[in-house]
Amino acid sequence: MKTILLISPYWKEDHRWMASSVKLAELWQRIGYRVVVVCMGRKEKREKRKEERSTVEMVSSTLEIHRIADWFFADPWNYGVAFGFSGYVCRLYKAIQPDIVVVNKLLFWSSLSTIALRLRGVRVIQLTDALVGMTWWPRGRIPQVCAAIYAWTLGWLELLCASRVVFFHPQPEALLRRLRVAGRSEVIPTGVEVAKYGLLITTSATSNQQSVTITYVGRLESIKGVDDFLAAAAPIAEKNPAMKVQVVGWHKEGHPLVEKYRHSVTFTGLQSDIAAILSKTDIFVLPSHSEGLSNALMEAMASGCACIASDVGGNRFLIQNGISGFFFPAGDRDALRSHIQRLIDDSAKREAMGRAARERIEKSFSWDVVGKQYDQLFTTFVSQQ
Question: Which one of 161, 201, 352, 383 is least enclosed by Cβ atoms within 10 Å?
């Protein structure tokens, strides 16, 4: 059995959840690989002994997780720093001699490992769902300037050091040529295990527009545009008391949006059974101001939800506007509210969109399809070593 060393910013650390890493590791195990993960994790109060800065969890015979304690800078940065991380990765590489090394995400502290490994002659596959500071932007002028500087210095160097670059959704060809990665890059999405998600079936005979459930799944971070979603959906819910608007995901205690909308919106906090929540959702909204390839959106589409998403990033790769979902300009609350109201009023349109979304996922983003693409990538990569 071949071994993949997966280097990820995070794994499952409350709100620091790296869904793409978790799902890809599960997929790779299913297609026959052993996965060893190195990630950052919450820094607890502990004695300052070097050996206590890391923990190792043996999840199964095919999954092993190494966590390095970090210092985390919250929204809008959402960035962790773990000194000595790249050194730990290099020592672990030497100890286990993996067949394949994969670094997931650019511009995180963990992705500096790409440079450190390349300097030691190790070939690395770099994965990323977005080019932060190039095609993906945080909210706020200062974070945007910092992202651009970081992207065109260390971020670019990380791409140049990678032997192969895999994007989760297509990037502008002109930009890839400028970055000098066009000839060694390809697109492979993370995908969805479709069987986990039941198809929501709504018919005009059983639908009641007042009982429609509208859901957002994700963290309450500025980049996700939850403020736009709440400003658009809450007034509709206030006029229809039987209607349910819910925000599913981690949020810090006393978050201002929770305090402002708690009387008309349900805030569930972090939940584990997203499939069950989506099975009872009629309309799913993803209002991000910038987005990579959203796992939440793919899961909602697999569940047959009628989806509304901002016209940014990987959303354009997933949704066919007007067929498998609706787009709206990021930040345009009036357009978002209009789409929500239309889908509330038109149950036939909700059902048609939900079915088209499910079909889109089954055809191009199911694990059966994506697993074959990754297996081919890894087979070719190993053969070239």
Answer: 383
